[in-house]
Amino acid sequence: MYKIAVMPGDGTGPEVVREGMKVLEAASKVCGFKYEAHTLDYGGDRYLKTGVVLSDEEVEGLRKYDAIFLGAVGHPDVKPGIIEKGLLLKARFGLEQYINLRPVKLYPGVETPLKNKGPEDIDFVVVRENNEGLYCGEGSFENKGTPQEIALQISRNTRKGAERCIRFAFEYTRKRNKRKNSRFAAKPTCSLTPGIYGKGLFTRWPRSIRMS
User: Fold this and answer.
1) What is the pLDDT of residue 87?
2) Could you tell me the residue ranges of all domains in the chain?
3) Is this model's pTM higher than 0.70 or not?
4) How open is the CA angle 120-100-53, to the nearest 5 degrees?
């Protein structure tokens, strides 16, 4: 029995989640699994009523679930950043959800803008680090309010964060399909000096992991 925390959230979130739950119900019957869905009202409407986005106790409460189904965050009556940081990023950091896994698959009978490509050509998974880099939300302004104003956004990348992401990607590739080749691309893709350091972590560690 899987326990799922359902968080419809804001905007189109409730609509998307409602349809997604229909898919989940159909899949459970076809694949033969059972689940319990608990709907949580975390989001902009609750914040406007209570002033609470997501408490530390509520983050801990999410640990008892096997999965979280989140619709969307961001409310027109709430200043941008409050819900996004207080709900999405707080839960992500608190639960150390450090992998953003994005399967890309073309199904039979579905049109694609890529010429002469079919399901056998488009079937891969993107593994992205989900806790560090620009997600850390660090930055500042210099000479604010002047013609020389500068906005600084820090991309913080750690050895621990890079290693665990790369290890996940390697192990996932092994399990998914040993016949397919894996290609590695570092998350920080900026070719200027600020991107060199983060990219260095992501390009050095695959070598050590391959040898371990």
Assistant:
1) 95
2) 1-97, 98-212
3) yes
4) 140
